[in-house]
Each structure stands twice: as structure tokens, then as C-alpha cells.
Amino acid sequence: MNDNPCTQIRHDFPIFEVSVDDQPLCYLDSAATTQKPNQVIQAVKDFYQSQNANVHRGLHTLSEQATTAYEAVRRKLAQFLNVQSREIVWTSGATASLNLIAYGLSDSLKKDDVILLSPLEHHANIVPWQLAAKRTGARIELLPVDAQGILQLEQAKALIENLKPKVMSICHASNALGNINDVAALIASSKSSGTVTVIDGAQSLLHLRPDLQQLDCDFYVFSAHKALGPTGLGGLYGRYELLNALPVYQSGGEMIDTVSFSGTTFRPAPEKFEPGTPNIAGVIGFGAALDYLAAQDHDALFQHEQSLYQSLLQQLSGIDGIRIWGDTANNVGTVSFNYKNEHHYDLATLLNTHGIAVRSGHHCTQPLMAHLGIEGTIRASLAFYNNQQDISRFIAALKDTISLLEE
Ligand code: PMP
């Protein structure tokens, strides 16, 4: 895909018409959150303007329409992921999904059971498991990752067979480095041990569009805002028998069958995990994001991202003193780097004066940064709406920043 279809796509994203600090925006922070196409913004606006009502509650027309639209998105997402719609639970995001799963699986964990994670994980895929371990006496073990931040697949498979973990929860793609992990191979290795497999898909839903039946994981979590959708919404897929067997996490209205002071009975999944009024407008907006994605040629978009990524890598590696981390051969288009011993914060602040939006810091992966022996990195993360001009502007600004720092 050349830059022409990309130019077309960029017109769908109104933020690129906005000036930030009097400069056109150069947005290289899509791993934090993606920009939203007009279709998503319009769907949220339309909902509040002409369809707003609560779901699953009223018999009146508007409420029925809202319920139908809301449930249609569950089916749309199920189709997108190639699973059943009753296997999709809406939550407020990947963080909430991981908490729900870690809390729920605690019931089946006991002392010395192994919860297998990796040093690449986001804090959201570490802390809920630490709490689960504390509650149950289970222990956390880590998959091997080398000094560059790359998961060591063969050693990892051997470790899985050896440890026979009760739970394995790993990211499909690292938010800090962009590495794509071969999660299918890890899941396959864990099958003979009956391990419950949880995939953190926060960074993979948009770039990799996984077929979850093919992946064969038990749970998969995501955030809608990292895949063109609104913030405050995410969800999880759970293999139905496992999902339905999980205990209730949060409770209240809508998730019950009957309530009396002698006891309460709960509805089956997914309802039993969705108490209270959900993020209806968010779900409707995400439905528009899924429609938008379905209308695009995914392979072409992925190739476009990858060619921008290669160009970014090549130009960055040509700058003396740049140290790039992670697996550059399997990557969703995120470059994480340092320049000599300069503080990442100083670089990002100076880049911002050129209108460049990148992230700097530990990226909610402090254990990974400790493993790499650094405090943080500068992270430039791409999405299909980026173009070659973004890369050129970023490289020019970086060179300018470096010469300023070297003065
Ligand atoms: N996991 C990964 C890999 C992430 O990148 C993020 C967000 N940075 C999360 C989990 C948490 O997502 P959210 O903040 O949307 O709940």
C-alpha cells in the first residue's frame, strides 16, 4: 500500500486537521490510545442526540432500540474475533477485564500453584495476579526474556512443560516494545497441562485482528480505545464453560435472576459480569469502529504499518548513539529507544516542541525496564493512519533535539 490510500484514510480522522501548539499534529502514540475516525465520533453523537435510553430495562421504543443496537455490537465483535457472542463480556477496559479474570480464577488456585507471566507484561497483567497469588498462596513464575527484551520461545515451551502452570497470562504484543509474542505456540505447549490461558490483547486487536478459535486461548482481553473505539470501554472473551463457571466479580442490578433477603441468583454469562448501566454510547461507538475496520483491507493496512515501521527503524538506526530495544523482526510497529545516557523525559519534552507526540517513561512496565537495566525509553508507536511524512518529521525533530542536547 502506498501513501495514497493512507491519505484517504487520514481524512477520516479529524484530529489530523487540528494544530497542537500551532503545529500540525505528528501522532506517534497509538499504543497509548488510537485516534478516532469520523464514523466513531458520529455514532457516539447520534446515540446521545437521537437514541439515548438505558438498555435491558424499558419496554419503551427508545430503550428497545438502544438494547438492540448495544447487543448487535456484541455479535459484531464476536464475529470479528470468531467466537460466540455469549462469550463476550463488556468491561471498562483491559485492566478491568484482567482483574475480573484474576479474581475469578483465584477460586480454583491453591497454595504453590503456578501463575505464569512474562517480564514483558503491563502492570495491568501483573498486579491482579499478585493479588490473586496473595489470596491463594499460588506463586508467580516468569517466562524467559533475553537482554534485548525478546521472549525465548524454545526455553519458554520447556518451562511450561516443566512447571505445568495453572494459569498463563501473557501479552500478544508488548506495549513497551511492540514485540509480537508467538502466543499460539505457548498456548499449544500448555494444552497437555490443562493450563488456563489468558492473552492480553490490548496491543494486538487492532494490528493483528486475531481469530480466537485459531489461537485457542481460554481468555482474551482488550481495550476499545486502542482499536479506534471510545475510552472507558473494553471487554473480554472467555471460552463459555470457563467463563460461565467464574464467580461473580462485581454485583448489582441487571446481572441477577432473582433477589430476596434470603438469597440472590445470578444470570448466566455474560450478563452476570455486567452489573449496572453499561457504557452504552461507548459500545455503539465501538460498533462503528468495527464496521470501519471491517471495510478496510486488513492486509494492506498491516503492510503499510510495517513499511512505515521499517523506514522508521532504518532511519533511527542510522543515528549515532540510538539504542533500540525489543524484537524488531516481529513487531506491531512500536519503536522503543534511548539516546546515549540522555533522559527519555528530556528527549520527549524537546520532541513535543516540534509537535511530535511520543510517549516516554516506563510505559507501565517497570519490571521490564528493570530487566533491561534502564529507567524508561522513548516510544514511538504507529497505526495505519500514519504516513511517511510523520516519519520524516519525527526523524528531523529527533536530529534537531539531539544536536541541541549535544551543544
Ligand atoms: N495491557 C497492555 C498490553 C496495555 O498496553 C494496556 C494499556 N496501555 C493495558 C493492558 C491496560 O489497558 P487499559 O488502560 O485500557 O485498561
From TrEMBL:
Domain of life, per lineage: Bacteria
Transferase found in the keyword field: yes
EC number of the protein: 2.8.1.7
Top-rank EC class of the record's enzyme: transferase
UniProtKB keywords: Pyridoxal phosphate, Transferase
Domain Aminotransferase class V residue range list: 27-394
Family per record: Belongs to the class-V pyridoxal-phosphate-dependent aminotransferase family. Csd subfamily.
Purpose of the protein: Catalyzes the removal of elemental sulfur and selenium atoms from L-cysteine, L-cystine, L-selenocysteine, and L-selenocystine to produce L-alanine.
Name by which UniProt lists this protein: Cysteine desulfurase
